[in-house]
C-alpha cells in the first residue's frame, strides 16, 4: 500500500484582480502587486486591451473618479500605490483625484481619455509614465504637481491641445519625498498648443528631444531659480528639437543663469520665429546643428563667454534679423551654412584659433561690410562668403587672406565685389577657378616683391593683377630661391639711398635646417645689397655641403655655421675677407675644419682668413 502524502501549499493573492467602487460609485479594477510585509495594489491590470482586442472590458464612464488611499479585499486592506499602464486609456472620465500614496502614473494610463482635470494629493508621486496623458485633448490643467515628482516620461502630455497650465510645487510638505523634478522626457509636451508659458523647476537637469516641440502658442519659458536657497537652475542639456517650432516664443528667462548647462543639441530652438535675444551661459561647450535655424526675429546672440569649439552646420541659418555676433575664443571651426542668409549681420568677429570656415558659412550675409579673417585660418569653403555684396560699399576695406590659408573653395568670395585683396602666404593657396567669381578686379596685393613670382606663376592667381604692397621696410624679411632651389631668408637692414639686407634674421636659420647640398647666396635682393650674414644664419643645417658667399658681404655674425657637420667648403667671392664678429674659432663650431676658397683676383692670403675669420690654424685654403 502506498501512502499518499499531501503538503499544504500557501496560497498567494499576488497578481489576483478584483473590483471595488470609488466614493463616487465608479467600479475600478485592482491588481494585487504585493502581499505580506507590504500590501499593495495598483489601479488596473496593466493590459492594453485596445491594442489587443480593440475594446476595453471596463471603460470607466464616471464623471469624476477619486483614487482611494486603500481598498479591502477578502479581509485584507491594501494600499493603492500605482495607476497601472493603460488603466484609464480611452475612458470617459472627466476628473481624477489622485491619492497621496500613488508613486507612479503608468504608461498610457489616461491616453486618449476625456479627462479635463487632474488633482494630485500626492506626497510620493515620482513618475508620470510615457504617454500617460497623450492625446487627452480636453485636459486643461493638472493643478500643482508635487515636488516629489522626478520624471515626466516620453510623450506624457503630447497632443494635449487644450492644456493651458501646468505647475510644479517647490515646497516640501510633511512626509513628502521632495527630490524635485529631474527630467522632462522625449516629446513630453509635444504639440501642447494651448500652453502660453512654462516654468521649469530649478531641479530639472534634462530636457529631452522634442519636449516642447510644436507648442505654437508658448510665448515664455522660465528656468526657475530658488533665490532664498541660492539655487540656480540645474539644467545640463537641452535636447534635439526641444523647443523646435515654438513660433510664439519670445522670452527665455534665466537661461544665462543655467550654469550647469553644457549642451544645446541639434534643432533645439529651430524655427522659434519670435525670439529676439539669446544669452547662453558660460558652461555651454556644444551647440548643435540647426540649433537656431530660422529664428528670423533673433537680433542679439550672446556666445562670447561660452566654451563652444564649433559653430555647427546650419546653427544660425536664416536668422535674418541677427545684426552682431561675437564668437568665443574657444571656437576652432565654423560649419557649413552656419550663418547663411543672416542678411542683417553687419559685424563679425572671428577669433584667433578658427582654422576652418565651411561651405556657405556666411553666404548671403548681404549687410556685412567688413570682417577680419583670423591668422589661424587654413581652409575657406565653397561659397563661404558668397553674396556679401555690402563689402563693395566700404571703399577703404581690404580683404586680407592670412598666410596660414592653404585652400579657398569654389565661389568662396563670389559676388562680394571686393576690389582690394591682400595675401600674406608666401606659397599661394589652392584656388578654384571661380573662388573670386564676379569680382570686379580684384587687384591682388602681396606684402613685398619676393612674393610676386610665385603668384604670377600660380594657377588662377596669375589671372589677376598682382602688385607688391611695399618695397620693404627695415626688419621685413624677403624670401628668395637660390639657383639650387633653396628658399633663403633675407632681412632688410637699411632703406633709402643705401638699401642693404642680411642673410638670416638673427633669431632663426636662413634656410630650412633639413636642406641638403649646395647653397648659393644672392648679392642683390629686389634692390637691396646683401652685405651681412647674421649670427646663426646656418646653425644646425647639418646636411649642407657648401655655401657660396657673394662679393658684397662685408660682415659675418657670430657662429653662422655652427652645427654644419657636413659642410665641406665655403666659396668667398669677395676681394677682402668679411669681418667676423664672433669669438676665436667659433665660425664653424668646435673642432670643425673647413676648406675656404677665396677669389683668385683677391690679394688676400691664407693668413688673412686665419686672422680675420679667427679660424683654427691648419685649415686648408685654396
Shape: elongated
Termini separation comes to 131 Å
Give the structural class: mainly beta
What is the mean pLDDT? 88
Radius of gyration: 40 Å
Strand content: 25-35%
Biggest sheet, open or closed, and with what strands and sense?
Answer: 13 strands, mixed
Helix content: under 10%
Q: What oligomeric arrangement do these chains adopt?
A: single chain
Overview of the molecule:
3% of the residues lie in helices and 26% in strands. It contains 3 helices and 46 strands. The strands form 9 sheets. Strands 1, 2, 3, 5, 6, 8, 10, 12, 14, 16, 18, 20 and 22 form a 13-stranded mixed beta sheet that branches. Strands 36, 37, 38, 40, 41, 43 and 45 form a 7-stranded mixed beta sheet that branches. The radius of gyration is 40 Å and the shape is elongated. Residues 1-10 have low confidence and may be disordered.
Give keywords.
622 residues, mainly beta, 13-stranded mixed β-sheet, seven-stranded mixed β-sheet, 3 helices, 46 strands, 3% helix, disordered N terminus
Amino acid at each position: 500500500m502506498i501512502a499518499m502524502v499531501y503538503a499544504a501549499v500557501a496560497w498567494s493573492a499576488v497578481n489576483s484582480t478584483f473590483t471595488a467602487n470609488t466614493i463616487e460609485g465608479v467600479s475600478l479594477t485592482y491588481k494585487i502587486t504585493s502581499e505580506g510585509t507590504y500590501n499593495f495594489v495598483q489601479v488596473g491590470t496593466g493590459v492594453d486591451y485596445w491594442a489587443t482586442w480593440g475594446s476595453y472590458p471596463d471603460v470607466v464612464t464616471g464623471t469624476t473618479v477619486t483614487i482611494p488611499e486603500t481598498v479591502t479585499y477578502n479581509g485584507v486592506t491594501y494600499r493603492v500605490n500605482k495607476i497601472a499602464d493603460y488603466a484609464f486609456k480611452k475612458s470617459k472620465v472627466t476628473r481624477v483625484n489622485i491619492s497621496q500614496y500613488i508613486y507612479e502614473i503608468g504608461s498610457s494610463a489616461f491616453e486618449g481619455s476625456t479627462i479635463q482635470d487632474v488633482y494630485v494629493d500626492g506626497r510620493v508621486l515620482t513618475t508620470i509614465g510615457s504617454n500617460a496623458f497623450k492625446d487627452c485633448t480636453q485636459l486643461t490643467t493638472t493643478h500643482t504637481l508635487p515636488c516629489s515628482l522626478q520624471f515626466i516620461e516620453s510623450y506624457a502630455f503630447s497632443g494635449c491641445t487644450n492644456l493651458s497650465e501646468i505647475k510644479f510645487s517647490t515646497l516640501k510638505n510633511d512626509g513628502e519625498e521632495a527630490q524635485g523634478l529631474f527630467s522632462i522626457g522625449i516629446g513630453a509636451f509635444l504639440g501642447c498648443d494651448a500652453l502660453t508659458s512654462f516654468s521649469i523647476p530649478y531641479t530639472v537637469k534634462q530636457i529631452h528631444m522634442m519636449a516642447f516641440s510644436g507648442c505654437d502658442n508658448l510665448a515664455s519659458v522660465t528656468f526657475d531659480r530658488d533665490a532664498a536657497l541660492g539655487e540656480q537652475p540645474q539644467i545640463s542639456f537641452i535636447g534635439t528639437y526641444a523647443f523646435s517650432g515654438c513660433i510664439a516664443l519670445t522670452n527665455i528667462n534665466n537661461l544665462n543663469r543655467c550654469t550647469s548647462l553644457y549642451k544645446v543639441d541639434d534643432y533645439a530652438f529651430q524655427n522659434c520665429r519670435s525670439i529676439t535675444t539669446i544669452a547662453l551661459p558660460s558652461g555651454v561647450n556644444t551647440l548643435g546643428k540647426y540649433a537656431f535655424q530660422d529664428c528670423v526675429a533673433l537680433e542679439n546672440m550672446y556666445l562670447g563667454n561660452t566654451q563652444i569649439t564649433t559653430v555647427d552646420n546650419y546653427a544660425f541659418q536664416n536668422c535674418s534679423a541677427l545684426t552682431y555676433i561675437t564668437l568665443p575664443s574657444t571656437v576652432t571651426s565654423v560649419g557649413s551654412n552656419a550663418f547663411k542668409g543672416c542678411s542683417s549681420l553687419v559685424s563679425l568677429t572671428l577669433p584667433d584659433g578658427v582654422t576652418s570656415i565651411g561651405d556657405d558659412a556666411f553666404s548671403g550675409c548681404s549687410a556685412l561690410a567688413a570682417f577680419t579673417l583670423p591668422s589661424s585660418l587654413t581652409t575657406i569653403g565653397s561659397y563661404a562668403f558668397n553674396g556679401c555684396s555690402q563689402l563693395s560699399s566700404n571703399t577703404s576695406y581690404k580683404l586680407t587672406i592670412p598666410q596660414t590659408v592653404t585652400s579657398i573653395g569654389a565661389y568662396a568670395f563670389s559676388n562680394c565685389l571686393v576690389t582690394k585683396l591682400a595675401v600674406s602666404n608666401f606659397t599661394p593657396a589652392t584656388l578654384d577657378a571661380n573662388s573670386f567669381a564676379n569680382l570686379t578686379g580684384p587687384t591682388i596685393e602681396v606684402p613685398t616683391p619676393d612674393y610676386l613670382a610665385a603668384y604670377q606663376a600660380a594657377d588662377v592667381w596669375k589671372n589677376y593683377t598682382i602688385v607688391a604692397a611695399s618695397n620693404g621696410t627695415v626688419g621685413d624679411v624677403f624670401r628668395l630661391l637660390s639657383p639650387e632651389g633653396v628658399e633663403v631668408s633675407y632681412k632688410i637692414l637699411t632703406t633709402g639711398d643705401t638699401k642693404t639686407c642680411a642673410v638670416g634674421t638673427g633669431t632663426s636659420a636662413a634656410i630650412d635646417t633639413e636642406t641638403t647640398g649646395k647653397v648659393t647666396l644672392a648679392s642683390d635682393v629686389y634692390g637691396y645689397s646683401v652685405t651681412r650674414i647674421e649670427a646663426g644664419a646656418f646653425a644646425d643645417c647639418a646636411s649642407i655641403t657648401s655655401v657660396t658667399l657673394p662679393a658684397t658681404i662685408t660682415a659675418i655674425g657670430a657662429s653662422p655655421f655652427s652645427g654644419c657637420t657636413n659642410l665641406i667648403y665655403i666659396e668667398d667671392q669677395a676681394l677682402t675677407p668679411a669681418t667676423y664678429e664672433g669669438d676665436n674659432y667659433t665660425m664653424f663650431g668646435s673642432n670643425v675644419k673647413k676648406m675656404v676658397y677665396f677669389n683668385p683676383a683677391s690679394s688676400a692670403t691664407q693668413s688673412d682668413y686665419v686672422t680675420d675669420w679667427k679660424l683654427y690654424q691648419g685649415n686648408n685654403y685654396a
